[in-house]
Amino acid sequence: MRKLNVLDLHRMSVDEFKSATKIPLVVVLDNVRSLHNVGSVFRTCDAFRVSKIVLCGISATPPSTEIHKTALGAEDTVDWEYVADTLAAVKALKADCCTVLAIEQVEGSIMLGDFVPSPGRSYAVVLGNEVKGVRQDVVDACDGCLEIPQFGTKHSLNVSVTAGIVIWDLFSKLDTFGKE
């Protein structure tokens, strides 16, 4: 087997990406403090053509050298906006007919593997602060919560790892362009 190089992968240009079909998913970062985590989420959102990232509270915004270190240019491809308050962002998404789901461990959460998105719906997932998770008032405002099952001794995953797992899972379930 020969390892593929960048040219072998035939990746789209920034302009092609901007005009390409996106999955009906918005990723909301609720006070994510690490610029490296923010950059990593940008890169994952680029890989799976997520519609938009909403950066809230203390979450850093581009341009930033530290975000760029992990985003590797995805901060220039993925649409994003800054909203000071996560609760306001959630309310705006819901008003735009988006189903908003917090990624959090709560009573009555749906395990990620059991979640079945409705065809034709748009979704947003809210990922929380590295220490405190998603704020309780934000959880309360969401339409539901998804949880990643964990079987070890730790009770949480890094927010960028969580984003990767959740985005991949939803990408594989949302019937958009994956079968092109």
Can you put this structure into words, describing what you see?
The protein has 180 residues and is of the alpha/beta class. The mean pLDDT is 95. It is globular, with a radius of gyration of 16 Å. 32% of the residues lie in helices and 21% in strands. The chain has a single domain, classed as 3-Layer(aba) Sandwich (Alpha/beta knot). It has six helices and seven strands. The protein has a seven-stranded parallel β-sheet, sandwiched between helices. Helix 2 packs parallel to helix 3 and helix 2 packs parallel to helix 6. Strand 2, helix 3 and strand 3 form a beta-alpha-beta unit.
Shape: globular
Mean pLDDT: 95
Helix count equals: 6
CATH architecture classification: 3-Layer(aba) Sandwich
Rg measurement, Å = 16 Å
Bin the strand percentage: 15-25%
Helix fraction, binned, reads: 25-40%
- Major sheet strand order: 3-2-1-6-4-7-5
What name goes with the CATH superfamily?
A: SPOUT methyltransferase, trefoil knot domain
Domain count: the total is: 1
Quaternary structure state of the chains depicted: single chain
Order of helices and strands: HEHEHEHEEEHEH
- Poorly predicted spans: none
Helix vs. strand class: alpha/beta
Return the CATH topology.
Answer: Alpha/beta knot
Based on DSSP secondary structure assignment, what is the total number of beta strands?
A: 7
- Top-tier CATH class: Alpha Beta
